[in-house]
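Need tokens for this chain, all 74 residues.
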Amino acid sequence: MKIELVCAPGCGGARLARENLDAALKMLDFDLHWSEVNLDSAALQEFYRQFGSPTILIDGSDIAPDRGPSAGGT
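Here are the structure tokens for all 74 residues:
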């Protein structure tokens, strides 16, 4: 399982998303690691540009696809 946190630097919700992701994995007793994708990276793959900040992806799928646009506007 591949878990990614997609976020932009300075995103107000990123810290809480990190904390919630860590807490959820710990609560479920999953020995999984996740990676962070920087939306401002020059090397960012086009696939990630469709997501707002913050977004949690599991195997490339948004865990909350119906939440509407992010506060960041991306």
